[in-house]
Amino acid sequence: MRESRIPPSHTPTTIAEEIAPIPDPGPAPHAPRVAGSGLAARLPALASPRYRRFIGGAFVGNVGAWMQATAQGWLVLGLTDSPGLLGLTSAAQTAPVLLLSLVAGVLADRVDRLRLLVAVQVCAAIVAAVLAALTATGTVMFWHVAVLAFLAGCTTALGTPAFQAVVSSLVERSAIGSAIALNSAQFNLSRIIGPAIAGLAIAGGGLALAFWVNALGLLLVALVLSTLRVSQASLVRAEASLWSNLVDGLRFVRANQRVAVLVLLAGVPALFVLNYLVLLPVYARDILGIGAPGLGLLTAAIGVGALTGAVSVALLRPSGGSGRLMLAGLAVGSSALIVFALSGWLPLSLGALAVLGGCQVAYYATTNTLIQVLVPARLRGRVMSLYILTSWGAIPFGNLISGGIAERFGAPVALAGGGVATLAILALVAIRYPEVRGLRASALIV
Questions:
Q1: Helix (H, G, I), strand (E, B) or coil at 37
Q2: pTM for this predicted structure
């Protein structure tokens, strides 16, 4: 990859200056605007050839990732027969977010983001290949899965802030909302395809195949990323310390109440909603009685709803949506979680998961866009790392809590309780922070 130089100097700005809307330097050339009123105008991010290559490679990699996630849950349940250890494994995979996200955010603002991402994908591929080999040889044990899940989580934590920042660097500023929504669409299309393939592989006794495919997919993503070029003009100077860079991002969030609320609110579904993914194997085997192929069906239903939600946001809200859409998405999704938790009828369960998937995407895509247009480019990696810290870093605690509750009182109680808690917190936020409810991404793009 071509060497990128960090600018030799950087003129500090005050927090007050950072809070005000400022022009973003935008991506490198070759991301033309799309005129007209047709589909191309509604999906302006696709005007960038670099972005098209990016989501194509990411899609293939995500198919493998969802295959692995589905197979890993089934493997742990088969090895341990314990919902609590399912939660522990997921906690091990998401715990590195707490340890590494803030440092990763600083790195994303200091080094070549694409080179960082390529290295992360290669390391993740090695982890997936080791799990595949252990499974194929029949020597895999629970502690192997837990340790490898932790290492995979480390690669995710190190790469995600750079990944999020790169998305907005591949398109014009006015197309950031479209880029984020389309990225959600490809991610959730892979959520449909990956688990369905994994379910068939598991039923045929091929757990290791899912892990091998993920390893190959990660290498493909690394190859695609190595061919892309983005501007490095917004990187902070290398002479500044990591601690100074980190404090700079923290001060910005603390001084900007709208960003602070968006960042903190992202931790609510991480604590109370997303644990439903960990408990899906319990529903497939013990509550709905549909086995391994049914586990793929449940996960695919989430993907169908999420894909529908992502495409709808991309087409109907190309500018990125609003605070009202964000809050409504999480509220409806929490209600759907309660329905799924208490349902013992497969069609109703599939429908509730589809609604939950769509609302989850609407919430996260809108929140992501609002944060990125509120934050100047030079701080984007650090602020996105704080967002990732709350939206992912709280997941281990949520998984451990829900796994423990499910172990003692049953999975329905664990999930329904989380949905009720989320609705209560949303009501408080809507009343206490009307300025967040009134945010519109289109009005923030300058």
A1: coil
A2: 0.69
